Amino acid sequence: RGSVSFLPRRYKGEGILPASPHHVWECIKPVAGGLRTKWDQNVKDFEVIEAISDTVSVCRTTTPSACMRIISPREFVDVVVVKQYEDGTMQSAAINVEHPLCPPQPNLVRGFNYPCGCFCIPVPGEPDRTELVTFFQTDLGGYLPQTVVDSFFPSSISGFYSNLTKAVKALKA
Question: Ranges for the START domain (predicted)?
Answer without folding.
Answer: 1-173
